[in-house]
Design a protein that fits this description.
There is one protein chain. Helices cover 31% and strands 22% of the residues. It is of the alpha/beta class. Strands 1, 2, 3, 4, 5, 16, 17, 18 and 19 form a nine-stranded mixed sheet that branches. A hairpin with a 2-residue loop joins strand 2 and strand 3 (31-36). The longest helix is centred in the N-terminal third of the chain and has 17 residues, at 87-103. The chain binds zinc ion.
Amino acid sequence: MADTLFTNVRILDGSGSTQPYTGSVLVSGNRIRQVGRSAAAIAPSSFSSATVIDGAGATLMPGMTEAHTHFSWNDAATLAAIQTMPLEEHVLWSAKVAKRYLEAGFTSCLGAACAKPRLDVVIRNAINAGQIPGPRYLAAGQEITVPGGLGDEMPPHLPFPDYSFGQVVNNAEDMRRVVRMFLKYGVDSVKLNLSGDNFVPGAGSHTTWMTDAEVAAAAEEVKMRGKRIIVHARSCASIKQALRHGIRLIYHASFTDEEALDMLEAVKDEVFVAPGIGILWALLWEAEPHGVTHEQAVAMGYEEEWAAACESLRAMHKRGIRVLPGGDYGFAFNPHLQNMRDLELFVKHLGFTPMEAIRSCTLYGGQVMMRPDELGLVKEGYLADLVLLDGDPLANLSILRDPKRMLAVMKDGVFAKAPSFASQRSWDRGLERAA
Ligand SMILES: [Zn+2]
């Protein structure tokens, strides 16, 4: 693997605590070997040959992490339309989406459920084997739910489990059976739908669905295998239930009270919240062409949930609880690759500074991927997951979702999207000596 030297770049290291500075970065193999903190490039004596990328003042920052990803959501308007895509097409779709995420600057994604049992695992394995391009990926199974809850899409007159978006379990032993099935398939995370969702008639966001016995059975199995439980938890009771069972990655967390916030704060060094607020915004304001008018969205409870979520998440951020971007992109009204709009919403509605918003997909990204000592920063020794951006994301976060501004993406020391600069050149010490 050839070394790569980025010169003349504005380094935004992803820590949230260092202002950007002009410098150069040497990548050797799949690691960041050296970070130079001056306009002068790193001395060539420190390496033998490298491809030199003159960044011409572009921003070099860590690759981004999406904390709540659904590769297999196929940009359809309903869960049923996602679920009924035939398996063969679904595998190809998921592979295509994985590639697009990587090229868009997501070098890490955390799978938050897939639409058929093994889709995520197969895509992760293919990425890791080098068969297809894609981000570092933690694979989930399908959502696990109970009859009538979010993810039980089975029509009463067609009692076929494959019609269901999620795996429906009906008691603690049934939960154990399904969790063990996903663990057998090789998932990194097991996803439970603890709360409802306003999307589902009769199972709104305030409702809570699983018994403690069911959650405990899942937690026991997953813990025994050293894996992670992740949960859909919009209602206040479901957030508390998750925390009581030791669950440390909570999706949505819209409705809280003082007790829930105190419980989150008590484990703030362990817990992550990835709210996926983009879809609330999209349903309220952008879903009309896809069949949901603003009035309908309000009637479904989305205005109330948006307000509650903003209040909850602002409070969490103030208390130092890690809130991460991403989530539920892959619907017609909330399509893939707009994910980093979440950062703009964090700043506009949740009280984040732009620097804090970026930290939530860099430093916190490495942490949520369970690789805090080697992922998520531009730092010597860290894995070379980098993006080169035309412009300053601190001044304009929207450039993070503009493919034209994403000049280059590197994962594990290899370009997924190579820069096309005229100034790119090879520097070879041997040749220089010969001359
Ligand atoms: Zn989700």
